Every structure is written in structure tokens, then in C-alpha cells.
Amino acid sequence: MENPLINGRLFDRIKVEKSFWTIEDQCTVVFNLEKFRDTIWKCVFVGDPEIDPTKVNTPRPIEEYDADTQGGIRKVLYE
Fold this sequence. Notes:
alpha+beta; two-stranded antiparallel sheet; 1 helix
């Protein structure tokens, strides 16, 4: 059996039917994972180094996020 290209538990759920992979320039594998919920992930795989989601620069208004994400953003902003 071949070794997997990637292995690990994702930080959160994805939409499997909308996620895919492609090969670019005959040597680069690109994975496109569509998140199940529109949130900012701290990392891709559990156990990987995490980013500080409060420092993510996003031009989207808070109202465009789902209710859970809006609550998390507001909590971070006011703490």
C-alpha cells in the first residue's frame, strides 16, 4: 500500500462533496478543502502549530459570518 500524501485529523469538518485535489505543474498537489462552517481555523490539522485568529486580516463584515463565528469574534474583540 502506498503512503498517504496527507494524514491527520482536520481541525474542523469539511464538505467532502465540494472538496477536491489537483496536480499543478506536473509536480505540486493542491488540496482545496471547503469548510463545513464559515469559521477561521487555528490550524489545518489538530496538533499542527496554531495561528492567532484575532490577528487574521479579513475585509468581510462580521455580519457575513454564521452566528457561532460572530459570537466568537465579538468575544475576542471585547476581552
